[in-house]
Amino acid sequence: MTHTPDITRPPKDLIDALKEIGAATVAGTLGHMGFRNPHMVGPVPQNRGKSIVGPALTLQFMPQRPDLFTEGEYADPETQLHRHVLYHAQEGDVVVVDARGDMSSGVFGDMMSTYFKGRGGAGIVIDGCMRDRPNVEKLDLPLWLRGWTPNYHVQTSIYPNAVNVPIACGGVTVIPGDIIVADDDGVVVLPVAMASKVIEESRKHHDWEEFSRVKLMEGGSLQRYYPLHDDARGEYDEWRKTSHLENRS
User: Fold this and answer.
1) pLDDT digits (tens, 9 = 90+) for 20-79
2) CB contact burial 206-242 (16+ within 10 A = b; e otherwise)
3) I want to staple 116 with a disulfide (CB 3.0 to 4.6 A). Which of 90, 121, 137, 188 is the partner?
4) Which of 164, 168, 165, 150 has its CA nearest to residue 42?
5) How far apart are CA 178 and CA 26, in angstroms?
6) What CDD domains does this protein's entry cite (predicted)?
């Protein structure tokens, strides 16, 4: 057996609160906090309308080298590290894979994806490809990938090297246990230590932006309502009081 470490999962209340906030708002808030680009470039949504929030299980691929990897090692399935990242899966987890942007290696296929969904996994993010698209699509499992290939994971030029270690995925560092926020805008990495502040700031942003959206739809001034000008704060405060009273009734 190959032994790999598990992750430390963030508190559930953080995950639940972030489910109300989109990837764009999280990315923008992080940008103002000094995390300039938390967005993974490369993996794109494969089933539109899906959104996930969950802790990252990580899988690292490396270029094949004959003294480190041979196809013969895979005669024993338990030496396949791409299986072991799935063994750690708990409900709500997100598997994040650094496949080096490789477009000819299908990291997971039908059976691995079925197992992961059966474990309650929230979704999969790969800087690379998957295979068995017709069957995988039937699972309706949220996916963010570069694309698809008929090749299996070690058929060409990469091999799985480590599970639950720091990786780079889509140009962003991912630490095991980081919170992944993904939707139709893409995938954002949120460090757990920054999550509470992001939630606090995002809620403020969401409230005034909702007010501004109403005013802009009514033909209001862009200069006054986006971003919210100080002169419109009193108007916003009155709207917020009325809105909250309506929500309670």
Assistant:
1) 899 999 999 999 999 999 999 999 999 999 999 999 999 999 999 988 887 665 667 777
2) ebbbebbeebeeeebeeeebbebeeebeebbeebeee
3) 121
4) 168
5) 14
6) RraA_family
pLDDT mean over 133-153: 97
CA distance 199 to 65: 44
Plot region of 18 (φ>0 → left; ψ -120 to 50 → alpha; else → beta): alpha
Other beta carbons within 10 angstroms of residue 203's beta carbon come to 13
Tokens (6 digits) for 112: 């691995």
Q: Output DSSP code: residue 180.
A: E
CA–CA distance, 248 with 242 (Å, rounded to integer): 10
Q: What is the tens place of the pLDDT at every residue in 195-231?
A: 999 999 988 877 788 899 999 999 999 999 998 899 9
The residue count of the chain comes to 249
Token pair recorded at residue 139: 């699972």
Tokens of 175: 């630490």
Tokens of 99: 């496949």
Instruction: Find, among 92, 88, 101, 95, the residue nearest to 113 by Cα.
Output: 95
Mean pLDDT of 166-187: 98
Q: Tally Cβ neighbours within 10 Å of residue 59.
A: 28
86 to 36, 66, 218: CA distances (angstroms)? 31, 26, 50
